[in-house]
Amino acid sequence: MKTRSFADAIEDALAKAMARDANIIILGEDVHTLRRNLFVRFGKERVLPTPISEGAFVGAAVAAAMAGMRPVVEVMMVDFIAVAVDALLNHAAKINVFSGGKWNVPLVVRTACGGGYGDGGQHEQSLWGWLAHIPGLTVVVPSNPADAAGLMLAALEHDSPVIYLEHKLLSDYWLDLLGAGGRKTVQFDVPPHGTRGPVPKTPAKVPIGEAAYLREGNHMTIFSVGVGVHRAIEAAEVLEKQGISAGVIDLRTISPLDRNTVCEAAAATGRILCVDEDYENFGLSGELAAVVLEQGIPVKYARVCTKETIPYARHLEDQVLPNKKRILEAAVQLMQK
Amino acid sequence: MNRNAENIKETMQPDPWFLYRLMLKSRLFEIEVTRLWQEGHIPGEMHLGMGEEAIIAGVVGQLSEGDAMALDHRGTPPLLMRGVDPVLLLREFLGRSDGLCRGRGGHMHLFCQNPLAASSGIVGASGPAAAGFALAARYLRPGTLAVAFFGEGAANQGMLMESLNLAAAWKLPVLFVCKDNQKAITTSSPSVTGGVLTERAEGFGIPAEAVDGIDAERIWHAAHEAITRARKGKGPTFLHARCVHLEGHFLGDPLLRIARHPLKEMRPMAGPLMKSLLNPKGSSMGKRTESLRTITSLIKENIKQRFSKQGDPLAYTRKKLQSDKPRLKALEAVVEAETRQVLAAALAPNPDD
Q1: Which of A246, A278, A321, B89 has its CA at 20 to 30 Å from residue A65's CA atom?
Q2: CB B66, CB B137: distance < 8 Å
Q3: In chain B, which among 15-54 make CB contacts under 8 A with chain A?
């Protein structure tokens, strides 16, 4: 084991895979500076800065994947994926079915997501539920360095398109670039175990579609991804002191959802609480309820999500995004249901 | 300010004093924004228009009642020069409920109904917005136009090129203003752009003109012709103006940070770069050194730009006004005093809180 930052763990995984597989290329805006180490090591033929033309370069990455390459296409922030959504929704996700299963699209879309640093509602969205809604897209959201490496390795070996979401509060360089800008005068609620942590010397793949139990609990199970996982653990520690035993499960993959683990945990505790930084309506939190109810598991249910467009002002933003206080309130209410 | 604008229209000649005043107002305001950002009172990213002022002044200085502006992520100078209350703008940046957008938009998402202006943090989005404002103008405010401000990076965005076509096909009253600093964030624009942007616009049948973006008076002339065409229903025009961004892509731009504190900022980068250069598995050493050179030349270029005063549009116009030093001093004193008042008013406690 060695201690790595979230961002370095991803880069190590990419470097390892790129050294092994010459068909892996990285393309996206500013990748020669954002991925400067890979740019120097593998050269401009394999790390290609693009124009600000998401529709063109994401679409091109889809077709390059169809034609034998393994592109890692970077869309700086998931919000900007909107500009390229046709390439994902109508093409990447559907090629395999349209070709009768003969044609794969081994594509990784790497994109930064999430809020908590004051960039406003057009740069801080999560959108994993929105993307996971589309059949044919795999969506992963790591919450710690080991999973960040493991999920990247898995994504790079996956034969269908994977959206890899990198939370900006976990990736130190994103937070510095967009939040701090070199300043020491601003503070962020950064989960320490998310940004730095042990990574195996030879990182292991984290299987796609496999959730992780992070904390056992008898009274309820909290499900989350990304930064939400850390907020949930903080809340569970407080709840324990109040006599409420809350388990925490990191889903890690949004789609395909680890239904077995979700149902098992729901059946065991009878209470589920979803902590989801993505929008509340028609998303991951509702999906969890549906999955459990479809199995006929009787549960009490609550959720703490983002309900509205994320406001710019930091104090408003902190209220809108799932935070420890909101999770605690929801958990206490859930116990009374 | 409005009276001055009226005068200009009557004389059909730009007034460098008026243009300098607009530019200075914006510059001094953004210097205060920089300070407040550095002190941590303004969160997140902050994209300034420092270096673009001549382009903005030359265009916005001759807009009239009913004209619309579609803005990018550098919306502060156009809004200030259009006469939007600077106190409301600054309060917005501070995230206050008494700000222009109640603290919910921030500097990339500024909206104003009168004068009509909307900004977006999505690169290229000002193209479709200007086309739509111009379409509405045709029904509701004949004789007015819409201006789209965007960078040369945005010129490669599909929606912007589609908007050029739409505006040309429908003869919409749009003035497309491309502010070209040759850099799409840190990517050299020529390295990712095919052809010449004015020719690209001409390919859509849109008259296009390249003007030096340092010279507010020249911008004014070019914009004047375009605005007149638009008002007469003769369709869109494309203006291309070179400029520099004196504070980089945004405040805290890593390339500028390196230029300012090379040793401190380069230290954490150097180790991983050397490891990448020397790792046994990778591309050939020739290719690796070439890649490394790409990065170091990017840094060198920024250091050079940092220490040259070239490209500052305020210095350029100010030089012209040096012939009347007392008037220049008086004007600067007035704008400085106004900025201090704005600052004091913006920082006063919010009675609603």
Answers
A1: A278
A2: yes
A3: 37-40, 43-46
Give the one of B95, B185, B193 whose C-beta lies nearest to A313's C-beta.
B95
**Domains in chain A: ranges and CATH:** 2-199 (3.40.50.970), 212-335 (3.40.50.920)
Q: What tens-digit pLDDT sequence spans chain B (353 residues)?
A: 444 444 444 558 999 999 999 999 999 999 999 999 999 999 999 999 999 999 999 999 999 999 999 999 999 999 999 999 999 999 999 999 999 999 999 999 999 999 999 999 999 999 999 999 999 999 999 999 999 999 999 999 999 999 999 999 999 999 999 999 999 999 999 999 999 999 999 999 999 999 999 999 999 999 999 999 999 999 999 999 999 999 999 999 988 898 888 888 889 999 999 999 999 899 999 999 999 999 988 888 888 777 776 899 999 999 999 999 999 999 999 999 999 999 999 999 988 77
Q: Residue A43: its chain B contacts at CB < 8 A?
A: 282-284, 287-288, 290-291
Asked if A300 and A337 touch (Cβ cutoff 8 Å), the reply is yes
A209 and B CB contact within 8 Å:
no
Report how far apart, in Å, the C-alpha atoms of A303 and of each of A38, A178, A181 are.
40, 29, 34
Helix (H, G, I), strand (E, B) or coil at A272: strand
Q: Is B163 on the interface with A (CB under 8 A)?
A: no
Can you list the domains of chain B with their CATH numbers?
Answer: 3-242 (3.40.50.970), 254-306 (no CATH)
Which candidate from A37, A41, A182 shows the least CB-CB separation from B252? Answer: A182
- Asked if A318 reaches chain B (Cβ–Cβ under 8 Å), the answer is no
- Considering only CA atoms, which of A4, A2, A5, A317 is closest in space to residue A173? A5
ipTM, 2 decimals?
0.95
Residue A91 a catalytic site member: no
Q: Does A319 touch chain B (CB under 8 A)?
A: no
Read off the tokens for A60. 């091109």
Q: What are phi and psi of A278, to 5 degrees?
A: -75, 175
Assess contact for B224 and B12: CB atoms under 8 A. yes
CB-nearest to B109 from A50, A52, A312 is A312
